[in-house]
Amino acid sequence: MTCERQDITLRVTNTSLHCPIGEKVGQQALEESKIPVLSCEGACIRGEIARQAANMIAKEEPFGRGCHGELMTVPQSAISRWINAAGKVVVVDGCFLRCHGRILENHLAGDQLIQFDALSVYKKYNDIFNADDVAEPERMATARKVADHVLDALSSGVKTSEQAVDEQGCGGCG
C-alpha cells in the first residue's frame, strides 16, 4: 500500500474545566507508575471491540485505563500529565486506519508508544458497522481474544510499535 503523508491540524477550544474523577485516577496512576492503555473509540463494531479489549487490559497490573479525549483536550489535567510522563503507552486501535495511533505518534515520543491493531487479531466483521449487530457474548469473547493477544505480546517483551506491528503482519501506512 502506498500512502502519501499529509498532516492535518485540529484546533481544540481550550477549557478551564476539569474532571474530578479523572484528576483522582490520573494522579493515582502517575504515583503508581501505571502503563496507560488507550483505545479506538470508533462507533463501529471494530471500535467497540478495541475499547472493550483496552478495558480488559487495564484491569491487569501494571496497566491503567487512560482517556484519549482528556489527554488531547485538557493538557493541564492529571490524566494528561500521567500519559505524557509514562515510559510506555499502549494503544489498541480498532482497525487498519490506526486513528488513535496516528494521532499519538505525533504527540508522544516514538519509543513511548506501543500500538496494536485489534482487527488483525480476529479478522472478521468487515461487513458489519453496528456493534449491536454482533451478540454481546461474541463481542466480549472477541475483545478477550484481542486483550490476551496484547497482554501476551507485552509479556513477551514487545517494546515498540514497530515490533507490535511486525508481529501482527500489518505494516499500515506508517
List the helices and strands and how they pair.
Elements: H1 20-31, E1 35-39, H2 45-58, E2 63-65, H3 68-73, H4 78-85, E3 89-93, H5 99-105, E4 113-117, H6 119-122, H7 136-155, H8 161-168
Parallel strand pairs: 1-2, 1-3, 3-4
Helix pairs in contact: 1-4, 2-7
What would you say this structure looks like, in words?
This protein has one domain (21-168). The chain has helices at 20-31, 45-58, 68-73, 78-85, 99-105, 119-122, 136-155, 161-168; strands at residues 35-39, 63-65, 89-93, 113-117. A four-stranded parallel beta sheet has the order 2-1-3-4, sandwiched between helices. Helix content is 45%, strand content 10%. Strand 3 (89-93), helix 5 (99-105) and strand 4 form a beta-alpha-beta unit. The protein has 174 residues and is α/β, with parallel strands linked by helices.
